[in-house]
Every structure is written in C-alpha cells, then in structure tokens.
Amino acid sequence: xxxxxxxxxxxxxxxxxxxxxxxxxxxxxxxxxxxxxxxxxxxxxxxxxxxxxxxxxxxxxxxxxxxxxxxxxxxxxxxxxxxxxxxxxxxxxxxxxxxxxxxxxxxxxxxxxxxxxxxxxxxxxxxxxxxxxxxxxxxxxxxxxxxxxxxxxxxxxxxxxxxxxxxxxxxxxxxxxxxxxxxxxxxxxxxxxxxxxxxxxxxxxxxxxxxxxxxxxxxxxxxxxxxxxxxxxxxxxxxxxxxxxxxxxxxxxxxxxxxxxxxxxxxxxxxxxxxxxxxxxxxxxxxxxxxxxxxxxxxxxxxxxxxxxx
Amino acid sequence: xxxxxxxxxxxxxxxxxxxxxxxxxxxxxxxxxxxxxxxxxxxxxxxxxxxxxxxxxxxxxxxxxxxxxxxxxxxxxxxxxxxxxxxxxxxxxxxxxxxxxxxxxxxxxxxxxxxxxxxxxxxxxxxxxxxxxxxxxxxxxxxxxxxxxxxxxxxxxxxxxxxxxxxxxxxxxxxxxxxxxxxxxxxxxxxxxxxxxxxxxxxxxxxxxxxxxxxxxxxxxxxxxxxxxxxxxxxxxxxxxxxxxxxxxxxxxxxxxxxxxxxxxxxxxxxxxxxxxxxxxxxxxxxxxxxxxxxxxxxxxxxxxxxxxxxxxxxxxxxxxxxxxxxxxxxxxxxxxxxxxxxxxxxxxxxxxxxxxxxxxxxxxxxxxxxxxxxxxxxxxxxxxxxxxxxxxxxxxxxxxxxxxxxxxxxxxxxxxxxxxxxxxxxxxxxxxxxxxxxxxxxxxxxxxxxxxxxxxxxxxxxxxxx
Amino acid sequence: xxxxxxxxxxxxxxxxxxxxxxxxxxxxxxxxxxxxxxxxxxxxxxxxxxxxxxxxxxxxxxxxxxxxxxxxxxxxxxxxxxxxxxxxxxxxxxxxxxxxxxxxxxxxxxxxxxxxxxxxxxxxxxxxxxxxxxxxxxxxxxxxxxxxxxxxxxxxxxxxxxxxxxxxxxxxxxxxxxxxxxxxxxxxxxxxxxxxxxxxxxxxxxxxxx
Lengths: 310, 467, 210
Ligand code: NA
Ligand code: NA
Fold this sequence. Notes:
The structure holds three protein chains of three kinds.
Chain A: E1 2-7, H1 16-28, E2 34-39, H2 48-54, E3 59-61, H3 87-99, H4 101-108, E4 112-116, E5 124-127, E6 142-144, H5 147-155, E7 159-161, H6 168-173, E8 179-182, H7 184-189, E9 198-200, E10 212-215, H8 216-220, H9 224-231, H10 234-260, E11 263-265, H11 269-293, H12 298-307
Parallel strand pairs in A: 1-2, 1-3, 6-7, 6-8, 9-11
Antiparallel strand pairs in A: 3-10, 4-10, 5-8, 5-9
Helix pairs in contact in A: 1-10, 5-11
Chain B: H1 3-19, H2 24-43, H3 51-70, H4 77-90, H5 93-105, H6 111-124, H7 130-147, H8 152-163, H9 173-182, H10 186-214, H11 227-232, H12 234-251, H13 263-280, H14 285-319, H15 321-331, H16 336-353, H17 356-375, H18 391-408, H19 417-425, H20 431-454, H21 457-465
Chain C: E1 6-7, H1 13-52, H2 60-73, H3 76-81, H4 97-128, H5 150-180, E2 189-190, H6 194-206
Antiparallel strand pairs in C: 1-2
Helix pairs in contact in C: 1-2, 1-5, 2-5, 4-5
C-alpha cells in the first residue's frame, strides 16, 4: 500500500513529525506500507483539505487560519493570548481539541480525520526599520499576522495583513509589509531573518494551529496491521518533533540573532498585561458570536478549550 | 505500470497532440487529465468498475487547477504589462522614442540601424511583449532606413531582432512566468533582466557598427542635428523614463531604504501613468475599449496556457517525473557545464517549433529542478556550488539564460514569430527576406549567450545588490 | 504558430448561432478587460494609501485574487471563436479540404471532451466552497479579510460552459464542411496565410500610432 502525503515549502522543523511517521510506518510494516511525501507537487497549501475531500491524496497538513470558513472549529486554538507557554502544552491541548465531537464533525465535512497536531511555540514579531521601543511604536506598522495574532496587532494600532507563509518573503522584499509574526522555525525557513533588524521576545500573542489529517475512507480501508502501525506511531513521531523543535530549532535561534545582529525587543510585563486585557476578551466574544452563527456550539467549544489551560 | 513510465508515455502523447495542431493550452490540459486518470486507474489494477472513479478524481483534481493557479497575486503582473504596451501606442510614445534615438545616436556608422536598436530597447522598458515591439517599429523605422539606402532585408532584420529585447528588459511577461513556475522572487528576476537586456542591445549595436565599417554601401550615418533639435526631442519621450523610474523604485529602491511596493504595483502604476498620457493625447472610450479588449484577449490566451499546462504539471507531480529526471541528470557522467549547455541547445531546437511561453511551462517543471540539483541544490551556498553561485542566484541566472533562448527562437526559422510580423507589415518583404536579414543577429545572440554563461556576474550583479 | 483567424458568416442557423455566441463572448471579454483596468486602479489606490496616508488598502491581495479569475476566464470563448489560442500549424497548415476538416474536427472534439470534464471538476471545486446554510453561503473565504471565494470559483465553470457551446458550434461547422466538402466553411476559425495573419495583427497594433 502506498499513500501520498501533501505538504508544502521544504523539509523543516514543522514537517519533521510527518517525515518521522513515514519512517516509523515503513519500519513497522517492513516497507509494505509507504508514505510518499510531496512538498507542493500535489496541491496548493490552501487546498490540501479539498484534495483530501476528493481523495487525491491520503494525508495532508494545513493551517486552520489559511481558511477559517473551511474549519471554523479549529480556529478556537488560534485566539490571541490564550496563555499557552510550552510546545508540550500546545500539543496536549490540540490533541484533546481534535477529539471534541464538534471538531470531528467539522472536519468530517471534508472526509478528513485528524491525525496529529504540529505544535508551534508562541509567535513573535520580526521586522525591519525602526526598532519599536514600546507598543505605541507599532502604530501604522504593516505586519503579516493571521487570525487572533492579527487582532492583537490591530489593538496596538498596527495594520495586519494575512498571507500564507510562502508569500511572506516577497511581500517583505516588496515593502508590502515591514514585519512578520511567525514561529522561530518559520522566521528561518521563509527568509525573514535575512532581512529583519529586530525581534520581539515576549509579545507571545498566540500561535496558529496546523493539523495533519488523513482521508477517512483511506484510513478505514487500511489493513488492521497498517492502521495500527500508523496510529501507533503518532506519539513517537510527536515526541521526536517536540524534541527536535526544542533542542535544535530553539537552540539555533539565539546564536542566529547574534550573528545577524538582530536586536531583541522586550516589553514590560505591565504593557503585555494591558495589551492582553484589551485584546483577549473582545476577540473571544467576537469568535463565539461569529461561530455560533455558523452553527457551531461555539461557547461550549471555547469553554472546553480554555478550561484545559487554567 | 510505474507512474514514471506513465509520465513518459503521456508526455510523448502530448508532443503528438501539439504537432497535430491542437491548441497548446488544451493539448497540455488533456494530456494532464488523461495522465491523472491513468495513474489513479492503475492504482486500482485497471479494474473496469474503477474507471469512472478514476475519471472522477482526475476531473476534480484538474478542475481545481484553473481557479487555484490563476487566483494569484503575482500573476496579476501579466495583464498590466500587456496593458502598458497597448496604452503606449495611444500615448504616442513609440514615435517619440525613435525620433530621440535618431537625433542623438544616428551619427555613428550604421547610425539609423543603431538608433533603431536603442529605440526598441527603450520601448522594451515599457512593453512586456516582443511581437508588439517588432510590429510597431517595422512601421516607424524601416521606411526611414530605406529612405537613406539601407538594404531592405537588413532593415527588416534589425527590427525583428530589436523586438526581442522586450522580454529581457523589464517589464517582461515571460520573466514573470518563469519566476512563477520556479517559485522565485519576481522582482529579482525582473531586475536581473535589465543588464543582460542592455548588454544584448550593445552587442547588436556593436555588430551593426562592425558591419557598417566593413561592408561597402551600408546605410550612411545621419548627422547634422543641432543640439537644440536634439534636446527638443527629449520631452516627448520623457514619460518612458518616468515609467521606467517608477518600475525600478518599486522593484528595488536605489536610494537606499525599502522598495516602495511590489513589482505588481509598480507595473500597474506605470500603466496608469501611460494611461493618463494617452488620455491627454486624445484617447477616448472607443480607443480605450479597443485596448482593453486586446489586452483581455492576449491575457486570456496566456492564462489558458498557464492553467492548461499546470494541469499537466500537477499530473507530473503525481507521477514524480521531476524528481526522477533530476536524479537522472545529476547521475550523468558529464561535466555539469556541458550538461547545462546541452540543455540550452535543446531549447534552441525546441524553440524553433514552439512559442516561448508554452515551451517554458512545459519544460521547466522537469528541467529546472535538474539544473538546481546540478548546482548543488536550492539551499547551496556560492562557495560550495558547482557554478559558483547560491541556489537562488542560480535560479535567476538560469532564468535569464532560458528567456534569452526563448527570445532567440523568435527570430530563428522556420517559426520565428517576430520575422513573420515584420514581413506582415511590409508588403514588399517576404518572410524569407526577413530571415535572411536577421541572420547576422544569430551571431550576436550566440555571443551574448556565451558571455552570459562565461560571466554570470553580468546577470547576478544587480539582483545581488538588492539583497 | 497561429494566433488570429478568419471566421466566415452567412445566414444559416449555424452561422447565426456562431455570431450570437461571438457577441456574448465579446461582452464577457470586455468584462475581463475592465477587470484589467480595475487592477490598475486598485494598485494606484493601494500605493497611495500606503505611502501617502499611511493606511494600506485592507485586503488588497484578497481583492486582486478575486479579480484574477475574471481576467483569466471570461474571454476564453471569444478567444477560441476567433482562433486566438496559439497552436503549431505546421502540419494542419499543409492540409486542405476534407482532410483539414477531419483533423480540425478531431482536435475540436478532443478539446470539447476536456472542457466538459473541466466544467464538472471546476463546478465541484465551486461546490466545496459553497454552503446554503452558512453566513454569506461561504464555506471558504479569503485569508486576509474573509471575502467568500465561491463567486470567483463559480466563474470557471460558467466561462467554460460558454466555451463548450462555442466548441459544439465549431464541431458542427467542421462536420458539415466535412460532409459538403465546401471551400467556404462557416462558423469555424480558418487558418490564414501566416503573413496575412501577421499583417492583421500588426495593422491592429499600429493603426493608431501613425
Ligand atoms: Na520589456
Ligand atoms: Na523559431
């Protein structure tokens, strides 16, 4: 049996769990069940869910914020200032969220079953031009920030723009944006560090949620042994992913900032607390209202998710 | 059957369709669709009952491609670049340019031909399409050259060759298409075309001067313009300088600091300036409507090729053909430079029979990864690379080489579109005449391509300044 | 490489249908041209907004992505009707009479088959983004400002359906020419002598410049 897997960009920390699970499954089935990973050859990243629904490929990764109407239930995890602090915590939260019936039902519209998250650290902003000294300096700054992080940026007077990761570098080159909210691996993989002159250390406005899904029919059609090999490898693949992210990507980050002469910007605790107060509650209220209109049990989902954090 | 074998067979079938005269866009789309059906049906062991299932999946995958690929911000450069060209006619920019070039440089040996080359190069800076450039200058420049005794065939050849400059000198629709296929920075590629384009123009000019000095009875220089007359010719062509200026600061800000915007915005703003000029010169709704319809037709033609070929490319992705070809090329036992030159020669042959855009879309998904692999991969540093340049710079360099090859194909027989266009404008010239007249420029182009290969700095110096 | 072509007309039903479709096609192509124009205006607004008023146009990229399908698809039938989609005519250019009509009929039917399947596939693509029960019927929206994507996705099957009608008329035209063996077939794009075609193109480009 062979499965096609649709990812995008190039191999990076963000895709290591998929590479790992392919390796584990191959080993456990003596090479009889293969995952062929393609970086961009099978679909555009914003259409990976469409491809899963068609049955064009059996496994894919995508980010909820790329298309909120396709997967409204997942965007609860992208709300600003939820207070998540570690990759392990992000992983556990996502895994629980993916089991919630409303989420399962939401993804079932695409014939998709959630397999595993791609936990990412809190986003922070790297930019060029004048280094912001306080949050006031964000006024008028054109920044790439999606979902809840965008709302946080709006609250400090910045002008957020959404675009997928692959489009960021060109927008930065062209001056459409001056700053980018990304996790560290993406700042490196998409060339932001080559242009940035500053990076915020503790804005931590949130992160985005990028699950790996499989086509439900394909999963149900697997031989039990293959199915066990796949599902039984998720934990190990994620352990590897988190370890790799914490110990390789994060460790490379500080030396890289030093080497490139990128200035670190740290805001006072008070400033962050004020920002959080100004952003978090209104954003959550808006989210519940919008998504209730889409027929989701929005309040319940929000309470369920945030209840696990406190 | 292995997906790669299916990939090869379908690619062969595509060539047959194209030669039989099926419109290129649809031939590619059909080949892609048939290939996808085949791959999915093969997955089910060619079970007759699974055929409709395979057909359905293939149609759905192919049906995604048109919207998915076309709804792309970077592609919006193409229609604006085309629109600029059409509006420029109404703004009278072409005539102004030729007049200025004549008064300023026609005093050198072979003067009027040299002036024509520089005027086409100047017009190239606002026009994104080669054929249009040749067509206009055939009307304006050939009569003047004939008046002072130039050989008819040679005069036509100068215009046909000069027209090709429009696709290297930004803005250029072909460079944009290359950038999008290989997913590289459009701005950098456009910037990279500037010096090789100017360089090509200089080599053309050098060739003409050389011919004027050695051949008896070559057209005489045109002199006797006063400085006053020269300066008087400048203001009407100033808008071109202004448009070029806008496009350049939008791609790369030479004053330091950030660029003012994206190439898309620069192109659109340039079009707007030319539009205002044209209105000032008396363009009204009837002419504007005409320009818009023509731009739409050309854009649709290009976009249909784009999505048609990308259906085929999506099929190649499922067949994993690019990966296999790249593995094969890198395993060859020849020097990488020899392989690169062989690839370029293959383009010269293919380009005799195909149009530039179709050729690039068809071949690049397979050839580009192979060239990048030859150089040492996408992420290779200049020091560790085969050709002495980083991955992204190699992408830029190869892009300029390939586009120059595509331009070369516009003047080579049997199908050199620029020559057909020039012959079409002049009733007294046959296509064979133009091909004969343009022949000396093959030499110039061969020299240019050789120099671009030997001294990549000509290509990558400017874009490397932009960071 | 053939671009433009001639289409003969008479007062037969076939030709009337062809001319009617050409009118519709031309109207759609003009919409596409106006979309190019609006792209230009949009960029001017975006640039001046960002550089002079320090306020970027919200959703600039989203709006461009909405306009692109208009530009790319709406004129497809008009372009096909007038032979504007390029092809290699080295081989067909040598053919005459019934052999020519047979070859043209074959490729026209091949294109028709392709386009019928693409209409199906692109309709499915539209349907995945459309939901009667959702706000603004949207099940897929643009990334930045959340414009519903279904109208833009709907343009593909609509424009391609008009193309299919045009192809049916052309197939009919080639079939009746094949039967009658006429040298004056109506409602189908004829290969012009390449030079005549270039002349046609060039006269269009330069007509207003001198
Ligand atoms: Na140009
Ligand atoms: Na040629």
